[in-house]
Amino acid sequence: MPKIVDHDKQRLLVAEAAWRVIRRDGMEQASVRNIAVEAGISAGSMRHYFSTQSELLLYAMNLVSERVSSRITQMSFDASSPLENMKLLLLELLPSTDEKMVEMEVWYAFTAKSKTDPALKEHANKVYNELRHAMAKVITYLMELNLLRTDLDKELEIERLYALVDGLGIHAILRPDQMNTKIMENILTTHLATLCRDIE
């Protein structure tokens, strides 16, 4: 009998192989042939799962954002600790664990590649717009709870938080010895506290 292959599972395994090649050897080595070798399948059989290299890379890129979104969707929050809730949410967007570090390293490699790949660029722009929307939700959440300082410009604070999270992510990837999870937590805690008014 012919071997039954789980198509979706195999696509996932190939995408994860692409991640490993990109992390180890760089995006320029993420050819169909090299990824096939990493995945343990023949280059010819790759066409059964992805018709082009661009399709494969787009799928692998999308896998990063899907996993982050899935974790955030499954989060549960303590209504009595709004600032802690927001800190935990923001940490999901940062390389605060080994798993997230892998995702972030691959994501930034894809982001660089997207400058010259229209399909990747479209997805990158979509995700960055969603990231900004997440920052807006944090600021709006604090405002709705009457915690946000009244002297602050909401739109400016959204951009500041966006820049802070993006910068922390890049710094943690480039200098993990200097920007570890504890430091990121402390920075987020301090920043969120500066956004809130004194409650007597």
Key terms for this structure?
Arc Repressor Mutant, subunit A, 200 residues, Tetracycline Repressor, domain 2, 2 domains
Describe the model.
- With 200 residues, the chain is mostly helical.
- It has 2 domains: 1-51, Homeodomain-like (Arc Repressor Mutant, subunit A, Orthogonal Bundle), CATH 1.10.10; 63-195, Orthogonal Bundle (Tetracycline Repressor, domain 2).
- The chain is 68% helix and 0% strand.
- Helix 7 packs antiparallel against helix 8.
- The protein starts with 6 loop residues before the first helix and ends in a 5-residue tail after the last helix.
Shape field:
elongated
Helix content: 55-70%
- Gyration radius, rounded: 20 Å
Reading off the top of the CATH hierarchy, the class of the largest domain is best stated as Mainly Alpha
The ordered H/E elements are HHHHHHHH
Major beta sheet summary:
none
- What is the average of the pLDDT values? 91
Number of helices: 8
CATH topology of the largest domain: Tetracycline Repressor, domain 2
Distance between the termini: 74 Å
Number of domains: 2
CATH superfamily of the largest domain: Tetracycline Repressor, domain 2
